[in-house]
Amino acid sequence: MGVGSPDRGDDAIGAKVAGAVTALGLPHVAVIVHEDPTDLIELWSGSDPVVVIDAVRSGAAAGTLTILETGAGLDPLPASAWRWTGRGGTHAFGVAEAVELGRALHRLPPRLTIVGIEARAFEHGAPLSPEVAAALPDALEAVLGAVSLSRQGNAHRREGHDHVPG
Questions:
Q1: Is 75 helix (H, G, I), strand (E, B) or coil?
Q2: pLDDT by residue (tens digit) across 23-73?
Q3: What three-state secondary structure class fits 30?
Q4: Which pLDDT belongs to residue 17?
Q5: Which residues contact 151 (CB under 8 A, 6 or more apart)?
Q6: What is the pLDDT of residue 130?
Q7: CB-based contacts of 104: which residues, under 8 Å, 6+ apart?
Q8: What gap in Å lies between CA 59 and CA 37, rounded to an integer?
Q9: Tens digit of each residue's pLDDT (9 = 90 or more) over 97-147
Q10: What's the distance, CA 79 to chain centroid?
Q11: Hey, how many other C-beta atoms are within 10 angstroms of the C-beta on 2?
Q12: What is the reported pTM?
C-alpha cells in the first residue's frame, strides 16, 4: 500500500514505490495506492502480509529508510513511530494511528511492515526531492524483501536501514 499525495513533492514516494511494485507484475502481490491513511484498516482487511509505504519526517536525512514490523498479536509500535508516522508527520491521522486503531478494533493484519522514507519537501505541485527519488530502489527492495520474507514466515533485518521491531 503506497500512502500519500502524488502531487505534494516527497509525499508521492509511497505511490511511486507502489507503482514500481506494480510494474514488476508479481502474481502474488496486490498493490494499492491511497492518499488517506484513515482508510487503511478497510484496505488491509483480510490481507497477510501487508506492507505500507509512506513519506515520514523524523529529522533524519532525506531519503533515509526506516522499517517497522508489527501485526496482530505483536507489540504495539514504539513511541518513536508516533512521531514520524502520524502526530508529527504529514497527516493529521497517520499510519501509526491506523495501525493502533486497527489493533484496538482487532482488524490488524497478522504481519504488517511499514517502510518509511524520510521526506524533505511537501509543496503542492513539487516533484520528489533528489534524495527521496534516489531512495526509491532501496525502498522497493525493502518492500519486496518484506513480502518475500513474510510469505516465508521469517524475521528480517536489512543492513543500512533503521529497523525497529514492532
A1: coil
A2: 999 988 999 999 888 889 999 988 999 999 999 988 899 999 999 999 998
A3: coil
A4: 98
A5: 28, 49
A6: 97
A7: none
A8: 21
A9: 889 889 999 999 999 999 999 999 999 999 999 999 999 999 999 999 998
A10: 17
A11: 27
A12: 0.82
Closest-CA residue to 85 (of 8, 16, 11): 11
Q: Please name the residue that has the C-alpha cell 488517506.
A: 36
- For residue 55 the three cell numbers come to 513519506
- Grid cell in block for residue 25: 507484475
161 CB-contact burial (10 Å; exposed 0-12 / middle 13-18 / buried 19+): middle
Least Cα distance to 53 among 61, 71, 65, 41 occurs for 65
Length of the chain: 166
DSSP state of 4: S
**CB-based contacts of 153, cutoff 8 Å, min separation 6:** none
Please return the burial class of 24, using the count of CB atoms within 10 Å of its CB with bins 0-12, 13-18 and 19+.
exposed
* Helix/strand/coil for 125: coil
- Report the alpha-carbon distance of residue 166 to residue 160 in Å, rounded: 19
Amino acid found at 66: T
Give the other-Cβ count within 10 Å of 7's Cβ: 14
